[in-house]
Amino acid sequence: MAPSSPRHAFVQGARDALPFTFVVSPFALLFGVVATEAGLNVVETLAFSIAVLAGASQFAALQLLTENAPTVIVLASALAVNLRMAMYSASLTPHLGEAPLWHRALAAYFIVDQSYALSIIKYERERLTLTERLAYFWGSVAPVCPMWYVMTLVGALAGTAIPESVPLDFAVPITFIALITPMLRTLAHVVAAVVSVALALGFAFLPYNLGLMVAGVGAMMAGAQTEVWMNRRRGAAQ
Question: According to its UniProt record, where is this protein mainly located (predicted)?
Answer without folding.
Answer: membrane
